[in-house]
Amino acid sequence: MKKHKIAIMGFGTVGGGAYDILTGNADHIRSTQGLDIEIAAILDRSVEPLKKRGVSENLFCDSVDALAADPDIELVIETMGGVRPTKDFIVKLLTAGKSVVTANKELLAKHWSELEPIARAHGCGLFFEASCVGGVPIIRALGESFQGDKVKRLYGIINGTTNYILSKMSSAGLSYEQALAQAQEKGFAEADPTSDVEGYDAAYKLSILASLAFHTCIPYTSIFREGITKVTARDIANAHELGYEIKLIAIGARDGDDVEARVHPLFVPKDHPLASVSGAYNAVYLNGDHVGDLMFYGAGAGAHPTGSAIVSDVVRALSAPPTYCDFRNDGKIDGAINAVGDFTSKYYIGMTVEDKAGVLSRVATVFGDNGVSIRSAIQRPCADDAATLVFLTHAAREHAVMRSLDTISKLGSVGSIDAMIRVL
Amino acid sequence: MKKHKIAIMGFGTVGGGAYDILTGNADHIRSTQGLDIEIAAILDRSVEPLKKRGVSENLFCDSVDALAADPDIELVIETMGGVRPTKDFIVKLLTAGKSVVTANKELLAKHWSELEPIARAHGCGLFFEASCVGGVPIIRALGESFQGDKVKRLYGIINGTTNYILSKMSSAGLSYEQALAQAQEKGFAEADPTSDVEGYDAAYKLSILASLAFHTCIPYTSIFREGITKVTARDIANAHELGYEIKLIAIGARDGDDVEARVHPLFVPKDHPLASVSGAYNAVYLNGDHVGDLMFYGAGAGAHPTGSAIVSDVVRALSAPPTYCDFRNDGKIDGAINAVGDFTSKYYIGMTVEDKAGVLSRVATVFGDNGVSIRSAIQRPCADDAATLVFLTHAAREHAVMRSLDTISKLGSVGSIDAMIRVL
User: Fold this and answer.
1) Which residues of A touch B146 (CB under 8 A)?
2) Which residues of chain A neighbour B20 with C-beta distances below 8 Å?
3) Residues of chain B with C-beta less than 8 angstroms from the C-beta of A273
4) Domains plus CATH for chain B?
């Protein structure tokens, strides 16, 4: 059996997870896949990560040029993260004909269009199953299953940090700040949580998933993005009362040449399969014109689930010729495709108003004037001669809702618009 | 672009679904997959099915030998079903070098080991994504994802008919007979429902899924099988009260060389993702040693979901060289593997006893003598000086529970053992 030599570039959590699987299950991979894989080099800034894991220092390598020049190394696992210097490193490796397996969604969302042609030109592959939804084989499925279907809609819970925070808010009644602090304590959120809680991470992944699902470039810069930092314990309580959970959802939809791509909190009906995806679990729910509804569910992150996806790509890369997607992810949406900004949704809206006659009517009139139809309204007295109003709307145009709220916020008797969350 | 000519063999519901997709989405398949596919022949017993669908009678073919001899036909979709004469037809086609795409789980479970070597010998492929779980790409996932993982457990709701019946019993309080009648009325159950309700269909599929998941032959004849015909409305009510749903579950588990494979009703905790898979939906939940828990969910059957899986296989077959699984499915479990009959489970047990002192104690003593530990017991009076006893046990050996029930049924004060359902 031929020995395949590979390298790992960046020996942190995920790189270590891939290492564990490739070494711990080496016999299993040999017997079931017919592949004898040897980790021949590990690139990192220092030898410390190797020492910490008890890995022979002989594997240590501190030069990507040495990896690129080593004729024995067929493939490199990239688990450094970030865009710089990672992109330059990957370009060097692909140019040297080494296939690259990466978990790096930011890099891929930003530079897919530059990297894939380099891989193709040098006869090697660029694999990224691990970039989205941990060990769930969603990249493989979007590329190599239901190829006869036009995917119409895709809903993803694709960020573990925000799902953990929202799940904690939902189950334990915590505030956003309390839940974030717990997530940071348990290692589910970083010290600077911006990329997760503001929806950047989900937007990178949605760019990749939607580009594959809709067979066209959906640049991450074209994705409407709103994070979870404004979701309050009161919103969660209202959601429960109305029969919903609040999730950060990445939505992609294609109707002919119109494409919607957006990441924002969403009221999800409690009996929808996505509502019960909780904690650090992730899921992608999609609808094809023939296959109907499908859902793919699993751990969204973590050393071993993500490592599992990396190893899957390594096996694929070493077993078959590479394939290419050829979607330009260069920040320009395909000319034939319209990005829909004024999408249609249902809405949950909360506001505080003066508790006096005629206010509800004046607010409702503004909605009506803008063509926003109210499905249900709840008015409750609160402190200081004020009342809270909670509305659920029928499907309406985003811009019409925004115009309504702008006008309503200027009505004399309206104290504040407290919440506006879209509803599935 | 080269035109690929293919044929459909058996133009019923599923064959018609595949036809709809291949013709209706032909442009989409051309532009996204680079494949120009023409349905050049349709084999059936008469031309009627073609007429009924408004398909040109010129496509009609009544001879498999003609298909096998036609040098232009690259691939045949088999949607005839059954084992005879289907198997002979497939052998002729494979021998002639035509790849075969099939939805036929019974044929595959029974004759995989004979058919695959013929395909391999003649350089063509045998594809069967559509054989299990409709349009859900579970065959592809088991073969080509998480290859670095040892799959430890697999739980499947893989029969739509029984899931529909049990869901109706659960949501509408119907008896088994009422729910079956509704399922038959709506076309979810056949006039003779035996294959579905007695678990044969699920056992065929489990044989395929478990063989792929565990990389060894799991013949359907080695699968422990119990259907849903004995599940009563009272069992469902008891399940709800205890926090469970009842589902027909196909279970595969591998621990070293020990393999369990069984199909039977199962109490599933309400917060488990499988509990909310209802109606005609199917799902496969599995656990790998690194990827953790995954779930694949979607329509389990139907012309278009199953047709979608067929078209996916057609695209695969026409795009890349075939791959082979090489698991002997010839009715003999791999010599290195032990089929575990005396598996371990938790149990729900219901019985009717005389309502007098000491009965509960005598019954509990029998369980204790057999090493079966009781987790909870409920005694309720019912008519005629009788009482019902409901037990939930801790994990126990199947054979120990059976021995206990045998002894208990012979106790003077025990009227009947009414239910024994395993618990997840």
Assistant:
1) 135, 137, 308-309, 312
2) 290
3) 273, 276, 297
4) 3-131 (3.40.50.720), 138-298+328-339 (3.30.360.10), 344-423 (3.30.70.260)
Q: Is B257 on the interface with A (CB under 8 A)?
A: no
A298 near B CB under 8 A? yes
CB B392 within 8 A of CB B398: no
CB-based contact B140 A140, cutoff 8 Å = yes
Q: Which of A17, A29, A145 sits opposite B147 (nearest CB)?
A: A29
Q: Predicted ipTM?
A: 0.95
Please check whether residue A140 touches B, CB under 8 A. yes
Tens-binned pLDDT, residue by residue, of chain B (424 aa): 899 999 999 999 999 999 999 999 999 999 999 999 999 999 999 999 999 999 999 999 999 999 999 999 999 999 999 999 999 999 999 999 999 999 999 999 999 999 999 999 999 999 999 999 999 999 999 999 999 999 999 999 999 999 999 999 999 999 999 999 999 999 899 999 999 999 999 999 999 999 999 999 999 999 999 999 999 999 999 999 999 999 999 999 999 889 999 999 999 999 899 999 999 899 999 999 999 999 999 998 899 999 999 999 999 999 999 999 877 777 677 777 788 889 999 999 999 999 988 999 999 999 999 999 999 999 998 877 899 999 999 999 999 999 999 999 999 899 999 999 999 9
Active-site amino acid positions of A: 205
C-beta separation of B132 from B105 below 8 A? yes
Is residue A229 helix, strand or coil?
coil
Contact A363, A401 (CB under 8 A): no
Determine the Cα–Cα distance for residues B270 and A12; give it in Å rounded to an integer. 37
Enter the tokens of residue A340.
């829909």
**C-alpha angle B399/B404/B407, rounded to 5°?**
125
Between chains, do A22 and B297 touch, taking CB under 8 Å as contact?
no
Q: Which of B31, B134, B215 sits opposite A32 (nearest CB)?
A: B215
pTM: 0.96
**Residues of B recognised as catalytic:** 205
| Residues β-bridged to residue B7 | B41, B76
